[in-house]
């Protein structure tokens, strides 16, 4: 009997299939790692709980991103390598290189795909993601440290280990004779894969037990070319028409602060760990603002991204156009028609405003930032950069950067020295960036933060896993910074727009929405009240029961209310575009 079994199942055959399943499972590891908090490593409950139909269905389709799935393309690639090794045994070296390259391509695509799907909650698209990938690479290289060096070493060792394992598996292939175990696996994989495709008519969903990763790559390439064509055929004539509809003069020109709070999302309202304290902060802040005669209005606004890509969010706000298709940004950046379009800040510049933009990050070495290009695109008249802040104190958070309290107040002092009115100041906060390492208290005197001896927290890598406690402290700090700034520096001539750019990465659940809080603060009660017509509530805590607006839709709201309250002629208001301007070719 033993001899019979050994004839049916050889050690080489067992070794081959062990390595096959090891490498196959590795292809699904990125999805598991990106969703560890919501995923069972062993999906046992799917197989033992529920009806028989549900248990059988979980073999083919389950929203638990475990590694126990089959890559049909890796399976077909392996079978092809087995057949080719028999037919072209002298070309095994070339075959081995080809096999390794294809496998690594599948693995790298899974890394890329899982990251963008889980962090940004968007379908990965090369055309859209090129800028983010390039910038991420440049930042990684320019901020090279001992930790990143170790990460590079670990990556090289991992790839080396994968290559060695692949070579070992291919070595088994050249000597392998299919026995009962091999034919059994082949039959099961073909039958189960065919059943999955017959049932779902697809083989590319990450929740499928049997899937074709290469089909995702092909679809991505095809969709990228289609998107590129759609972008090249956008109807820019509508920008010219819209320019005409928003042309009017102002009799009152309030200074406008546009403050995007990094990672300030709806999670503050939905998460049990955050909600109680968040309500307390906002109630306290509203009382203090009311005591100083400030009026407030708040709503939830749907951001175009979920857990990252701040520039996509605030640029959509600026343009009044959704950049959910992020690849369009590269087209817009250099397009002459866009340079003539009166977006939020260019419209204000044309009304006599001077546009200041604060960016307090320590600029990475060997990282070229096209300041002139961004100035032209965003209509920035003056940048206030880290080098302008004269900061000698302790840097904090990812980046790193000075405490936001210091940066915001220092920028304000520079603007006062210019004696420029009206003006806009745009700032996206830095201390609430993932992994949410921020100061914990507001200083009585913001300038005291510039002392070398001041206490604080050191900068942290963006690769550090965030905690909910750190996130809570960071958002509280940012809201306290804004509150302190408004009460100490705000005047009757000021209008504050305080907006979350997106939900916090990693901490936000898979099923959470894209909404972020949006606050408007002014001493003009009538102006504040007018925003209730669009879903704003006259309070600092936005309502979760009212349909959220959209970041790209606010520009049209802003123009309507500026004309209604501050225009020389308050008739014929500009059109309300809740979804932003439509530039589709049709």
Automatic annotation (TrEMBL):
The alphabetical list of record keywords is: Membrane, Transmembrane, Transmembrane helix
Residue runs in coiled coils: none
Gene3D superfamilies registered for this protein in UniProt? Alkaline Phosphatase, subunit A
TM helices/strands, residue ranges: 14-33, 67-84, 96-119, 139-166, 178-198
Q: What InterPro entries is this protein classified in?
A: Alkaline_phosphatase_core_sf, Sulfatase_N
Q: Which residues form the Sulfatase N-terminal domain?
A: 316-521
Asked if the Swiss-Prot or TrEMBL record annotates the protein with the keyword Transmembrane, the reply is yes
Q: Any idea what this protein is called?
A: Sulfatase N-terminal domain-containing protein
The organism of origin for this protein: Splendidivirga corallicola
Q: What is the lineage of its organism?
A: Bacteria, Pseudomonadati, Bacteroidota, Cytophagia, Cytophagales
């Amino acid at each position: 009997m033993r001899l019979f079994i050994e004839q049916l199942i050889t050690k080489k055959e067992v070794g081959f299939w062990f390595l096959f399943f090891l490498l196959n499972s590795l292809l699904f590891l990125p999805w598991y790692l990106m969703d560890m908090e919501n995923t069972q490593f062993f999906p046992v409950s799917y197989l033992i709980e529920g009806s028989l139909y549900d248990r059988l269905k979980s073999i083919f389709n389950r929203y638990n991103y475990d590694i126990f799935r089959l890559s049909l393309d890796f399976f077909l690639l392996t079978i092809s390598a087995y057949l080719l090794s028999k037919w072209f045994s002298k070309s095994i070296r070339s075959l081995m290189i080809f096999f390794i390259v294809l496998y690594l391509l599948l693995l790298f695509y899974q890394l890329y795909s899982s990251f963008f799907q889980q962090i940004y909650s968007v379908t990965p698209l090369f055309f859209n993601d090129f800028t983010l990938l390039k910038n991420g690479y440049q930042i990684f290289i320019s901020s090279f440290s001992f930790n990143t060096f170790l990460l590079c070493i670990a990556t090289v060792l991992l790839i080396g280990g994968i290559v060695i394992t692949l070579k070992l598996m291919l070595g088994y292939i050249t000597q392998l004779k299919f026995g009962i175990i091999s034919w059994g696996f082949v039959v099961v994989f073909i039958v189960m894969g065919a059943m999955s495709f017959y049932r779902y008519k697809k083989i590319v969903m990450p929740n499928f037990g049997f899937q074709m990763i290469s089909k995702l790559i092909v679809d991505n390439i095809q969709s990228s070319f289609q998107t590129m064509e759609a972008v090249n055929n956008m109807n820019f004539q509508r920008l010219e028409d819209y320019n005409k509809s928003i042309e009017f003069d102002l009799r009152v020109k309030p200074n406008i602060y546009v403050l995007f709070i990094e990672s300030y999302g709806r999670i503050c309202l939905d998460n049990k760990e955050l909600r109680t304290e968040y309500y307390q902060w906002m109630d306290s802040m509203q009382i203090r603002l009311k005591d100083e005669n400030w009026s407030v209005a708040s709503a939830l606004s749907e951001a175009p991204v979920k857990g990252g890509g701040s520039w996509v969010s605030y640029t959509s706000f600026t343009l009044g156009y959704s950049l959910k298709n992020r690849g369009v940004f590269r087209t817009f950046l250099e397009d002459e028609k866009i340079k003539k379009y009166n977006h939020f800040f260019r419209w204000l510049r044309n009304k006599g405003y001077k546009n200041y933009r604060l960016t307090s990050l320590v600029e990475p070495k060997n990282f070229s930032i096209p300041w002139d290009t961004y100035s032209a695109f965003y209509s920035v008249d003056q940048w206030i950069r880290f080098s302008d802040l004269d900061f000698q104190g302790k840097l904090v958070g990812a980046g790193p950067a000075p405490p936001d309290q210091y940066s915001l107040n220092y920028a304000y002092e520079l603007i006062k020295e210019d004696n420029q009115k009206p003006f806009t100041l745009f700032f996206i906060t830095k201390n609430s960036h993932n992994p949410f390492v921020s100061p914990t208290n507001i200083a009585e005197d913001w300038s005291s933060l510039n002392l070398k001896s001041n206490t604080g927290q050191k900068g942290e890598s963006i690769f550090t896993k965030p905690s909910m406690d750190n996130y809570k402290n960071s958002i509280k700090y940012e809201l306290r910074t804004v509150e302190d700034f408004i009460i100490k520096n705000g005047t009757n001539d000021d209008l504050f727009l305080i907006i979350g750019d997106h939900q916090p990465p990693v901490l936000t659940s898979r099923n959470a929405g894209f909404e972020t809080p949006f606050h408007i603060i002014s001493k003009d009660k009538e102006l504040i009240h007018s925003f209730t017509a669009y879903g704003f509530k006259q309070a600092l805590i936005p309502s979760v029961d009212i349909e959220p607006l959209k970041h790209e839709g606010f520009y049209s709201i802003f123009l309507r209310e500026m004309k209604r309250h501050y225009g020389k002629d308050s008739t014929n208001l500009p059109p309300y575009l809740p979804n932003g301007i439509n530039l589709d070719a049709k």
